[in-house]
Amino acid sequence: MSNSSSFNEFLLAFADTRELQLLHFLLFLGIYLAALLGNGLIITAIASDHRLHTPMYFFLLNLSLLDLGTISVIVPKSMSNSLWDIRTISYSGCAAQLFFFVFFLLAEYSLLTVMAYDRFVAICKPLHYGTIMGSRACVKMAAAAWASGFLNAVMHTGNTFSLPLCRGNTVDQFFCEVPEILKLACSDSYLRMVWALLIGVCLGFGCFVFIVLSYVQIFTAVLRIPSEQGRHKAFSMCLPHLAVVSLFLSTLIFACLNPPSLSLPALGLVLAFLYSVVPPAMNPLIYSMRNKELKDAL
What we know:
Blueprint: E1 9-12, H1 18-48, H2 55-84, E2 88-90, H3 91-124, H4 129-132, H5 135-162, E3 170-171, H6 178-182, H7 194-223, H8 228-256, H9 265-276, H10 278-289, H11 292-297
Parallel strand pairs: 1-3
Antiparallel strand pairs: 1-2
């Protein structure tokens, strides 16, 4: 940690009036309980029902664990601050929150890429699915997704908090976010972070291209299926994952494309809420809505 940061805590953005603080607490409480219930039920159902011990549900179990991690890192602290009318988070607490949020978020993105490959093999190479997506291969893919999130979190957290901060300690966000911490960095040290951001952008774009190419081949293969029932079954296998990927990427891209010079603080808060809080609560609903096997297990 840099010695030039003379403060030992950050000030987070919260509503000034007590009514809005309580509204914020109740809104986050409802969403958090929904996320805990939905993801917890999916984890329990997959773990306890042997019929769901397949690659697709194995990856879905990992996705639910990551969703629980993502929302649990930021929402309880935000609720606590709103309830007790405080704005502070310690320096080490902010670093820990940023590390775990980046870890869970990027691991989830990597896992969604792996899940796209799983759907590609299931539809485009069904005869080789059991061979390619064996239990050992699935464990290695899931471990690689978690490891990629961990390595990226170490890189971004280390680089962010090694920068000298000389523009105060007020973070215009309800949790510690990399762009908001970087706004506090001294201008002459900001360029040290560019290479880490470029690596993250390149990896993210690579995953995005892989997902798009996978679905181009999936839809090409599905449209060649002669029977309407076969096409419907193939689409039903892919649509939940495609919906989750679309929700995840659309909210994240809107947040990233929000120009700092033009953005309003309220808009930044809404965009952060959309990409950090909404997907973990919505993913269980999306996956269970038209999934008969999961409904039966539940």
